[in-house]
Specification:
Elements lengths: L1 E3 L19 E3 L5 E11 L3 E3 L3 E3 L5 E3 L2 E7 H4 L4 E5 L4 E3 L3 E5 L2 E4 L18 E5 L1 E14 L7 H7 E3 L3 E6 L9 E8 L8 E5 L7 E2 L5 E6 L4 E8 L2 E4 L5 E5 L4 E8 H4 L7 E6 L10 E6 L2 E4 L6 E3 L6 E7 L7 E5 L6 E6 L6 E4 L1
Parallel strand pairs: 3-8, 4-9, 13-16, 21-24
Antiparallel strand pairs: 1-2, 3-7, 5-13, 6-12, 8-11, 10-12, 13-15, 14-19, 15-18, 17-19, 20-23, 22-28, 23-27, 24-26, 25-28, 29-30, 30-31
């Protein structure tokens, strides 16, 4: 309310008013109320060191609320209080900073200035979590790749939707990491139309700062062709000596992919289809038979590969050998009588012979 100023005598004394300044004053009439407000942080002048980041979502202020008394109209404008760090700081680790500066702000973050606010003065502790960050290459592993295959060539035509990801951790454990794996891919799964999305599995206590939730891996097949071959030569490796193992599958149709310059010169004779029995289930009985998954490779051409599912495509059988061949090794032992000891690879007892 704007009120005019008048001057008068309290005891009836006569006088002349020469001038009044100011001619009026503004008077606020209001109801005095008390409210509580949350205390937020204002760390706009605080920065992080290289390879670090402040986790703003986890900043904590203690105490986290304040009780204020004052004119109701002013308090109604206030949305929250801010504990302000007034000086510039650079942090490389989680730190607790204190301040006694409290600023009241409206919903638009604009300061609400008033000398009529009454609240208890205090120091406010602001805990500022600092995380270590690292940019990692997004990688994948190729499985069932023959030793003669040009893996670098295939990787050059497998396109990723993202090559890097930035992670944050509460400590420096990320310093030892250089790559982030999206998983394993079997070579035989990569066909001409191969395209697959891989969800990024972020380890616990790590934070994904890139905003990438998945990576697409797709094959650029613009220069590739596909062709089928019928292979009749299927061999066995690492067969047990106690069984005579044979392949009962007469032929296997194999689909090969590769650049046209190699596929057009490729023949079935160039393909090696092998049943590797190393690690096969334990065999018992006079006869055994089972289906097995072969490995398919090509020594002659290094940029072609087999695609498709060949799980248990080869039928293998075996008959137990009554008298398995004993492979012996001879080791000379320098003794006074120059004794040679022959050791058998089976459970047959060792024999000694004196020269």
């Amino acid at each position: 309310k704007t009120l005019e100023i008048n001057v008068s005598s309290k005891d009836g004394t006569q006088f002349t008013v020469k001038s009044i300044s100011p001619r009026s004053v503004n008077i606020r009439f209001d109801k005095i109320v008390t409210k509580k407000y949350p205390i937020q942080d204002d760390i706009s002048k605080v920065s992080s060191a290289d390879n670090c980041i402040i986790n703003t979502d986890e900043v904590r202020v203690t105490p986290n609320e304040v009780e204020v008394s004052g004119p109701e109209a002013i308090l109604n404008r206030i949305s929250y209080a801010a504990a302000v760090i007034p000086k510039e700081r650079e942090l490389s680790a989680t730190t607790i900073l204190t301040t006694d500066q409290l600023e009241f702000r409206d919903e638009n973050d604009t300061p609400v200035q008033s000398s009529h606010l009454d609240y208890a003065l205090s120091n406010y502790a602001i805990e500022i979590p600092v995380q270590y960050t690292q940019e990692l290459d997004i990688t994948y592993q190729l499985r069932n790749v023959p030793t003669s295959f040009d893996e670098a060539y295939l990787r050059s035509i497998l396109k990723q939707s993202a090559d890097h990801i930035t992670l944050a951790a509460p400590d420096s454990t990320l310093d030892a990491e250089t790559a982030f794996s999206i998983g394993q891919i079997s070579l035989s799964d990569i066909g001409l139309n191969f395209s697959k999305d891989y969800t990024l599995e972020i380890p616990e206590n790590y934070e994904n700062l890139s905003g990438i939730t998945s990576v697409n891996l797709s094959l650029d097949s613009s220069n590739l062709v596909e062709k089928e071959f019928v292979v009749t030569d299927i061999s066995i490796m690492n067969a047990p000596t106690t069984y005579n193992m044979t392949v009962d599958t007469s032929q296997l149709t194999v689909t090969m992919i590769g650049p046209k310059s190699q596929i057009e010169h490729l023949s079935a004779a160039d393909l090696t289809v092998t049943v590797n029995l190393l690690g096969a289930p334990q065999m018992e009985g006079e006869t055994v038979s089972f289906n097995y998954t072969p490995t398919i490779s090509c020594e002659k051409w290094d940029r072609v590969w087999a695609v498709g599912d060949y799980t248990n495509k080869v039928y293998v059988k075996g008959e137990k050998v009554d008298n398995p061949t004993i492979e012996a090794t001879t080791t000379a032992i320098p003794t006074a009588n120059d004794i040679t000891v022959a050791t058998a690879t089976t459970t047959t007892a060792a024999t000694t012979k004196k020269k």
